[in-house]
Amino acid sequence: MRKSIELINVRKAFRLVHDRASSLKALAIAIRKPKTEIIWALDGVNLTVDYGETLAIIGRNGSGKSTLLGLIGNIYRPTEGRVAVNGRAAALLELGAGFHPDLTGLENIYLNGAILGIRTKQMRDKVDEIVRFAELERFIDAPLRTYSKGMVMRLGFAIAVQVDPDILLIDEVLAVGDEAFQEKCYKKIEEFQNAGKTIVFVSHDLDAVRRVSSRAVWLCEGKIKADGSVKEVVNSYAAGIAVE
């Protein structure tokens, strides 16, 4: 089976700076350099995702889940190793990512389309459906900074699913919406699954993981601790949390 996503010996480091000078004056008179610490968010990850799979990534805060999604979505580059993504990915990596607060909702639709490499004419054909799905007809000409978190989430999800990506990346954003809109999102995810799309889904909501996913991966301190059936991985993860 063809691979939709492949990570080979991937490591990702971030530099954490301690004792940073709080002002230009403090920086100018500082005698010692600030201490830096290298944090390995991912450490030797090998992972393949087949076309049509819905993969859940679970783990504690700081385990590397969002970093992994960011690498797949080309937000980050690996420090070591290789990431291969076959197809266009639409990402909901964090609330408001890819949006400009001073632009209107409508302007942000076109901005996101440009980020995804979609031409203005193509986006124009999709605008009505995006606005309708997001249920933002009354507010689409208002600046994004006036939107609630739920409104931003609805707009982001509507854009991601209406641009017809090959791969959909979702990072916790469904938790922000109300129950009715969550159900709407789950139905759209089911449509994607029936169409053979690839979905990578990060969530702390284990019920959502069980509902949506066909496979699960448990990340712990930047390493894959378990990879397999949703039931087995979720049960192992829940048992591991219980004894901590």
Tell me the name of the CATH class.
Alpha Beta
- Tally of alpha and pi helices: 8
Total domains: 1
Distance between the termini: 38 Å
Indicate the structural class.
alpha/beta
Biggest β-sheet description: 6 strands, mixed
Rg computed from alpha carbons, rounded to a whole number of angstroms: 20 Å
Strand order of the largest sheet: 5-6-7-3-8-9
- The overall strand count is 9
Determine the strand fraction and express it as a percent band: 25-35%
Low-pLDDT residue intervals, each spanning 5 or more residues: none
On the 0 to 100 scale, the average pLDDT is 88
Give a verbal description of the structure.
With 244 residues, this protein is an alpha/beta fold. The protein has a single domain, classed as P-loop containing nucleotide triphosphate hydrolases (Rossmann fold, 3-Layer(aba) Sandwich). It is 37% helix and 28% strand. It has helices spanning 24-29, 65-72, 105-115, 120-134, 149-162, 179-194, 206-212, 230-242; strands spanning 3-18, 35-50, 54-58, 80-85, 89-92, 167-171, 198-202, 215-220, 223-228. The strands form 2 sheets. The protein has a 6-stranded mixed β-sheet, with helices on both faces. β6, α6 (179-194) and β7 form a beta-alpha-beta unit. α4 (120-134) crosses α5. The two termini are 38 Å apart.
